[in-house]
Specification:
The chain is α+β, with helices and mostly antiparallel strands. It has three helices and five strands; from the N terminus they run ββαββαβα.
Length: 125
């Protein structure tokens, strides 16, 4: 799947109940004016997810955007689920062409906007 910067604000996916396929749960178009705070509210407290977010920010006098891949594995998730997501992450990332930043989160403090902004700025040219 090619992730063009002008297509989605964010997508949410999970590994299916059969543990053999990835299910797309939600794809929010870029035209939707949801915020990063709205995106964070979608993170489940007790289950893992793969997420991709088209993050826009201002830096060094210009407007920038980065496509960010998240592996969400909260502390309350089942161990088997965490292991499955960790072992399949690289395959998922390879299938998603255009990823520029990766963030792994186990609690909301690891994915808050300040952390994301700092990571994006560190790779901006």
């Amino acid at each position: 799947m090619s992730l063009k910067k002008n297509t989605y604000r964010y997508i949410i996916a999970k590994i299916g109940d059969n543990s053999k396929e990835v299910e797309l749960l939600k794809a929010v178009p870029l035209s939707d004016k949801t915020t990063y705070k709205d995106f964070l509210a979608e993170l489940p407290a007790d289950d893992c997810r793969y997420l991709v977010y088209n993050y826009e920010y201002d830096f060094d006098g210009g407007h920038r955007s980065k496509i960010v891949f998240f592996q969400w594995a909260p502390e309350n998730a089942k161990i088997k689920s965490k292991m499955l997501y960790a072992s399949t992450k690289d395959s998922i990332k390879k299938a998603l062409v255009g990823i520029q930043v990766e963030i792994q989160g186990t609690d909301k403090s690891e994915v808050e906007e300040a952390v994301l902004l700092e990571k994006c700025k560190s790779i901006s040219k």
